[in-house]
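Morning!

As promised:
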Amino acid sequence: MDRLRIGVIGLGWFGEIHCETIIGVPNLELAALCTRQPDRLAAMGAKFGVAKTYADYNDMLADPEIDAVSICTMWDQHVGPAVAALKAGKHVFLEKPIASTVEDARTIIEASKGARGILFVGHIVRFNPRYRMAKQAIDTGKIGKIVALSSRRNIPAAWTPTILNKIGPIVGDAIHDTDIMLWFTGEKIVSAYAQTISVRNLKHPDIGQTMYRFESGATATLETVWCMPEKTPFDIDERMSIIGTEGIIHVQDTFPNLGIVSSDKLHSPDTTYWPEFNGVRGGALRDEFSYFANCALAGETPVMGVPTDAAAALEATLAAEESARTGNVIRIGQG
Amino acid sequence: MDRLRIGVIGLGWFGEIHCETIIGVPNLELAALCTRQPDRLAAMGAKFGVAKTYADYNDMLADPEIDAVSICTMWDQHVGPAVAALKAGKHVFLEKPIASTVEDARTIIEASKGARGILFVGHIVRFNPRYRMAKQAIDTGKIGKIVALSSRRNIPAAWTPTILNKIGPIVGDAIHDTDIMLWFTGEKIVSAYAQTISVRNLKHPDIGQTMYRFESGATATLETVWCMPEKTPFDIDERMSIIGTEGIIHVQDTFPNLGIVSSDKLHSPDTTYWPEFNGVRGGALRDEFSYFANCALAGETPVMGVPTDAAAALEATLAAEESARTGNVIRIGQG
Amino acid sequence: MDRLRIGVIGLGWFGEIHCETIIGVPNLELAALCTRQPDRLAAMGAKFGVAKTYADYNDMLADPEIDAVSICTMWDQHVGPAVAALKAGKHVFLEKPIASTVEDARTIIEASKGARGILFVGHIVRFNPRYRMAKQAIDTGKIGKIVALSSRRNIPAAWTPTILNKIGPIVGDAIHDTDIMLWFTGEKIVSAYAQTISVRNLKHPDIGQTMYRFESGATATLETVWCMPEKTPFDIDERMSIIGTEGIIHVQDTFPNLGIVSSDKLHSPDTTYWPEFNGVRGGALRDEFSYFANCALAGETPVMGVPTDAAAALEATLAAEESARTGNVIRIGQG
Amino acid sequence: MDRLRIGVIGLGWFGEIHCETIIGVPNLELAALCTRQPDRLAAMGAKFGVAKTYADYNDMLADPEIDAVSICTMWDQHVGPAVAALKAGKHVFLEKPIASTVEDARTIIEASKGARGILFVGHIVRFNPRYRMAKQAIDTGKIGKIVALSSRRNIPAAWTPTILNKIGPIVGDAIHDTDIMLWFTGEKIVSAYAQTISVRNLKHPDIGQTMYRFESGATATLETVWCMPEKTPFDIDERMSIIGTEGIIHVQDTFPNLGIVSSDKLHSPDTTYWPEFNGVRGGALRDEFSYFANCALAGETPVMGVPTDAAAALEATLAAEESARTGNVIRIGQG
């Protein structure tokens, strides 16, 4: 087999982006689609020329000509399709966060043990070449031992009114930087303190600021603002500084790599994560799918997207959210 | 009188910079110098052509031909000269932090009440045109109501081994951003949480990360790293983002305004705070001294460098340091 | 005398900025105003509380209580007031370009020889601390010998419809960078080639691109765009790279030092040249006036704003304009 | 067939990078290697596990199990292998510049007419997502009509002592920006003027500055410096501004996207063109090879890497070099 036949479960905006990306990966074949919304299912089937469409993921999983699935359902609806797909022997590309509770994450990880397919969790930022090259520099000792980190991951207000009724910015976005910080330090997080503020009175607060302590004493801050104003140039204002005993790494924002001043505004579009050219997505998301496909086809266990790493990032961000709710510093992993 | 005759008390590296700045301000006359170190006193007297030199500030204060003093002694030695100068009827330019304890700050403020001279505390960042223009934009409503802030103020390791045995980065430097945040929001800080880490095992930790909550619920993080490595381009890596309900302001770092690549390194020197040309300092420090001189000569009460503002910034940073020591969130101003 | 009483001749937008700057310089007194437009004269007299107002600069120059003048008339109306002021023994601050022809520049320089007052030409960019610090680095050998330079000085279209009927972008703005390049290299320019393009069909083209050859063989390009679109963040998009045999200096743009995202756009206001706070201008323009006042009061010949330097910059930019008109490479100073 | 078996001809530093990239493209198989240097051939064969190695490209081309070749010989040795490969029915990926003379370019293009394989010229910058997205914005009218452009493409001195004895910076590197400008404007270049300067007295000058005029009157400058000093942070200092009647696009440099401050220097490595992770290259070079493979496998004529476009860029840069040699403005395409 040199092509992986993949079905996408969950066809919201990001499920569609998955599809637009999969069609650009030579050893992937977009073979099936699944959503409970019939109109959306028909539209996506037509758009991508995919004949196999399902309202129930169990029907898709029963098809022996499907080798793999990508799961883009809401974060609190991951357990069902992920466990079923693993039981059905499929390779699983599961969007982050791995689940909405630490218990659910464990259930999914449990199901992956002994499964015939691989379980890969989509922590895409590890496929951003800037972070990946930073990791290489850290691993070769260029900055000594990490003592402090700070990050930002801010997005426009226009993108978030719907999502903020489902997930907040700390678990939704700071989880990326949490995962990267765990990767860079190779350490555990021992405590979390966070503050949030609600700007638009949606279900979750618009802004989160988080502080972690790592087991070596290293300290970190993380900023996630989900309400940047209309005229912000940024699609993502993304930065990280990693301070070591011998050096510093600055992963800067994607701005001002490309600034387009039109009659409307200055816009600095994302060119890194899933840039679209002629209807096909490239960037880090394609690299992530390629990595997944290559591991699955070669029968190799991935060293990126590792489920236990994803669970650790989830645990830390959930602790930060608890801190924001209670006003207390939350200790992690001490019971 | 259209020139203010000023004496400088404390002639460490920053006292010397004060002198280099004063000589460039038309309505200031550098008239006297004071330090307990005889060699330094002689050297500075010769460098600046100042005949009146004193080992004891009381002798300087007794001179009726001195109108004003700038006080650059260590932060825990402010009370003596500041109170004495105010009692002697001199105008006082007092370096930040106003004092090393809230009590000492109150003693100094008490002494200023009814004094003939003005008391001005050197919170220089308010004279950085970028922050000052940001304040104008905030006051004219351009970004709505402030809901979150984040700042950085990092300096090279080579600058700090001595100072870190006297003061830490939060009270020493985050106090600048604390003052600016208080100025921008017009609010009080109600709690502080901070984490520090010691890299070089000096008396104070090299790195501080601080989180504040403001009375409106606005949240803020502040980073202060006093151990940037040798090859960092920055003299000061200084940034602030101010997130409002209607807009955002980014006060960026001074880099890369001027980058000088020599055979040694890429260096981005400070051109804002006290750039030196032909032995004379300009920039924000000169603007600050001009403001002080103009107020003193005109008999006007300053609206910048206000001692009670300085005391509020001190209180918040001391609370942050207490938080870092104890691991607790510290409530402010509730007793 | 420790204050220079100065009158401003020409009260267009920049004459007004001169006034707003002069009132913030302690050893300058804004003592008189002159314009042929009666309404403007009355309005400016009222705004600045200046009683001495003149329709004819000769009347101002006849006043023995005026020590100095700043001349802000259009560039082709410099000779009259400049020569008359020098003959009247006044110190002269003359805006750039020194004149509209090389002959006129020579006439003015001739008049300054043996004059009682100093003649200073307002090449403000030499007072931008970034260029000034770059000059220091060059003079101390940090980048070796200069072999190439490139610059940009672009401004918004909204600022230029009127001015473009009086002067073009090469003589109007590239003259700044020309002067700086002459200052940095210490060389003469031997040839100029330029291309322009007219976007809005005004009297002068909106855009100029210029290339110089210096006598050592060093090569330079200069970009001046006077039609940046409405949503550009820049007040001035200003940059220069200076490439030496041993190093490089990058003088970057003023963006993104301060970025203000309001409901309208992202704006990066100028904080360097003439920032205004409470009705008074600071920045490089104030430094320039301070330098002028200090030289005049001390009876020292300025080493900045030197008229022959200004004439050399004028000659090079006029040659570039001739090149753009004719399509030929223009040799300079060879006859 | 769903995999293209490709051989690489020319195994200098860039031939090796081609190999490192090809092995990461699923529908390419690195099947053969060719160089006249036996040691290098053996080493590369061993490194990539490729059994088919050739000293003479004709032997490689005789192999029916080779579907395609990439040609990385020196630019003046393109005609031989390119024409032979096309005659042998292979698909050809030819590095830029297409050839070293306009006549050679025509010979190669002639050979491609009626050939069974496609001829693709490796103008990689079109696969940089920032330029590609800029092209999209231009095509959708976001900036109106292009009236001026300026570009920079500067690299460190340490990279260039060998190459500067083979090719100069204008044909070697400004050809990238020339191709992009031709792509963005959709116009022809009608004249070129250029100045060069030799810093290290190698065969070709280290620095080139070029000015083009386009048929619509649009004007452009291009800077190429091949001698940036050791401590420059840049791998490539790459920028372009595209000024339109309704907007502007700024394609900024790759710095400071990732800045690594180690004990040696601040380094901003390229993360865009061919970043290497675990021995495999990604970035624009992989995208370029994927595009080539997809076109070849699908039997589609490429719309990127079009040989006549490559010839037009070559002609303009050769005209610029002639201008630099003669001091004259060179007209293009007028007979």
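Residues 194 and 326 of chain B are 10 Å apart (CA to CA).

Hope this helps with the figure draft.
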